[in-house]
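Reopening this ticket.

The earlier resolution said the output was attached, but the attachment link was broken on my side. Pasting everything inline this time so it's all in one place.
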Amino acid sequence: MMQENFVKRIAVYPGSFDPITNGHVDIIKRGLRMFDEIIILIAYNPSKVYLFSIEERMEMIRDIFKDYKEIRVDCYSGLLVDYLKISGANIILRGMRALSDFEYEFQMALMNRRQTKQIETVFLMSGFKWFYTSSKLIKEVASLGGTVKALVPDNVNQKLMDKFNIGNNRG
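Inline output:
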């Protein structure tokens, strides 16, 4: 019997995840059908203002995927291609919602490919029910007291309610 060399397919799914949404969760779970391991990478940009700290985002994501041994959560503030080199991954997983995402994502994929030819970018289309969902929109609706319960995991919904003091008004 001939033994084959097994190469683990490790994908990095980068984003700010401020906060993670059900659309992100959908992409990750569908990605697990293609990859042996997914690293959810919280990209940190010091010039951006975030609602949740890196630690809070990592905690929420780890809680969501606590039963998935093939998922890791990490953070990084440098070039994505540099992170891929140190992590052992060579695939970038990205989700796309609409045509408006395509131009930006295509430019990023080409720039990453220019940095190193060993990196491939795989795009997954957003599930139809998450097509309009974005972290920015979720934060805006939650900050104004609207409900986002069906758009984010339960633990994230609770953190948003706590952050915006929704349902905690005594009086």
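Reporter confirms the inline version is readable. The chain has one domain: 10-130. The domain at 10-130 is CATH 3.40.50.620 (Rossmann fold).
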